[in-house]
Write a structure and sequence with these properties.
Blueprint: H1 2-11, H2 15-88, H3 102-129, H4 149-163
């Protein structure tokens, strides 16, 4: 019985205890309301960030498509420039002029021109060394040196016949 008395006393609250419990309960409700408000703000912020992320993703996709188009146009322009460089330098073999960028093409053209000029200068120098006079040699009498006496007589008779 003694235990029952204690339980009854513990379950029956004094007005002060009831006020304290009510105050605690009210504080708990206020804290819960604040937490719910903070969660609502966070949910709103998450929604805003997701919307911003979607906008940025779309802009990124558009920029990637634009970049791909620009790369395609650049590649086509470099190809046309390569064709033009080959056409303008017809004395240079086409396979010597190459490159993936305009700068590389210009460098290969300059290198090819330098090689062509070096070869040309070398060929001109060789041509000067082995210069052959133009036209037929000067006509002169037949040299009788090294001919036998019989051949010398035949040559004499031939020359008399030709002058008479």
């Amino acid at each position: 019985m003694e235990n029952e008395t204690r339980e009854t006393q513990n379950t029956q609250g004094t007005p002060e205890t009831l006020e304290a419990i009510k105050a605690e309960l009210e504080e708990g409700r206020k804290a819960k309301a604040e937490i719910e408000a903070a969660l609502a703000d966070r949910a709103k912020r998450i929604t805003e960030l997701e919307a911003s992320l979607n906008v940025v993703s779309q802009a990124s996709e558009a920029a990637a498509a634009e970049l791909a188009a620009a790369k395609g146009a650049s590649s086509k322009a470099v190809s046309k420039y390569l064709e033009a460089a080959r056409a303008l330098n017809s004395t240079i073999p086409k396979d010597v002029i190459s490159g993936q960028t305009i700068e590389e093409i210009d460098a290969s053209v300059e290198k090819a021109k330098a090689i062509a000029n070096a070869v040309k200068a070398n060929l001109e120098a060789q041509a000067k060394e082995a210069k052959v006079p133009a036209g037929a040699p000067i006509r002169s009498e037949i040299s009788l040196e090294g001919l036998s006496p019989r051949e010398k007589i035949a040559a004499g008779i031939m020359s008399l016949r030709g002058t008479q």
